[in-house]
Amino acid sequence: MKGSLLKTELRNALDHTNDIVEKSSTSPILKNVFINFTHDKAYITATDTHIEITVEIPASVESEGKTTVNAEELFSIVKNLSEEDLIFELQDNSLEMKTPSSKYSFPTIDPDEFIFMNIEKVKKEMTFMAGHLQYSLKKVIPFAAPNIRVAQQPMYVGVLFERYSDFLLIGATDGASLGYIEFDTDKLEIEERVRFVLPLKCAKAVEKIIAPLEEDEQVFVQLGEDRAVINIGSVSYKILLIAEEYMDLRNLIQQDSKYEIKYNVENLRSRLKPLFAILDPDSACFTIDFDGDEQTKISAYNSPIKSEVIIEVVESNKEKFKIYVDVSNFNKVLSLLDSKNLILKMPAKRNPLFIKPEESPEGCRQFYFFSALTF
Fold first, then answer.
1. CA gyration radius for the chain?
2. DSSP code of 184?
3. DSSP states along 203-237
4. Where a domain ends, among 82, 113, 144?
5. Is 118 within the bounds of a domain?
6. Quick one: how far is CA 126 from the chain centroid?
7. Is there a single domain that holds both residue 236 and residue 295?
8. How much is the pTM?
């Protein structure tokens, strides 16, 4: 195997594959990337056995071949190189990487030991607009649980995708809070909704890949029985989907609201900032007490300090209420909003509180939920 390529191309590829490499794995092959030089292309592949990524980059191939090397070691050197031209040559049990002024030798593992994911028969194919995914993933990923130890249920460490005939739904929840986005789409000839749940690790990787894309570029998805293939330009993912049945998110937003009130977002942020500063962001709660007229009193207690803040109301349905809200969830929603005003709604006692931005991109509907207790 012998070929040459550009450092920038390889660095970008390794930046993506290293998001998938299982660095803490006890299996050496899972710490490696698979490198395949063939037909004037180089294919860089990494896997953790649940997610596989392959990045295609241009190359000049003198002799075809494949091997595997440690992903972290290769990336740490490549990202610090000052020269663009790289030549790779397989020498017995090592891979040589040469620049005009330097040479590096990496130990290899037999490429036949690399673990590739198999995808059974494709059952459904669909496309998504990059702009819809860019906006939605940025808003909903923060609501997924960071890992299974925190989540206790697999679906909470994932992002839900539901494709209907004329709109796309993307949502995530950790069991205590939830982010939910809908986008109108071109009409599809599908008899029923198509739904799948991406692992959080993969959703974050996809968010990173699509960030530089134009909004009207397309992302292609193929679904099998329990796996999916996602193609984004020169990058391809194979994913073992989360199999656990996800809750029906649409039912949450179709409830009538007993309490409804509108606030200015910047006013809320500025008034609540000093109050939140004295509270434990991971465990503290505060009360929202609306008098049914023009003002809301927000109060919190963190011994020995008791804080009260008055917030002006933009509009309401005049229903008095007092609720007990988790600081971290409320603050998370505030940090994600890019609307001038928010609408706070609550169907009835002991039901989820939800926040809806007053303004959203064209064809978009978004909602954020979390638990709250009405007094």
1. 25
2. E
3. HHHHHHHHTTS-TT-EEEEEE-SSEEEEEETTEEE
4. 113
5. no
6. 19
7. no
8. 0.89
- Residue 354: CB atoms within 10 A of its CB come to 22
**205: burial class by Cβ within 10 Å (0-12, 13-18, 19+)?**
buried
CATH code of residue 161:
3.10.150.10
Name residues whose C-beta falls within 8 Å of residue 309's C-beta, 6 or more positions apart in sequence.
271, 272, 274, 275, 297, 298, 299
Reported as a single tens digit per residue, the pLDDT across 123-165 is 899 999 999 999 999 999 999 988 877 667 888 999 999 999 8
Q: Find out whether 222 and 178 touch, Cβ atoms under 8 Å.
A: no
List, in order, residues 6 or more apart from 132 with CB less than 8 Å away. 168, 170, 183, 185
Distance (Å, whole) CA 251 – CA 247 = 9
Question: Do 179 and 268 fall into the same domain?
Answer: no
- Please give the average per-residue pLDDT across 82-96, as a whole number: 95
Residues in the chain: 375
Tell me the three-class secondary structure of 310-322, residue by residue. EEECCEECCCCEE
- CA-based nearest residue to 118, from 35, 10, 226: 226
Domain boundary pick from 113, 141, 170: 113
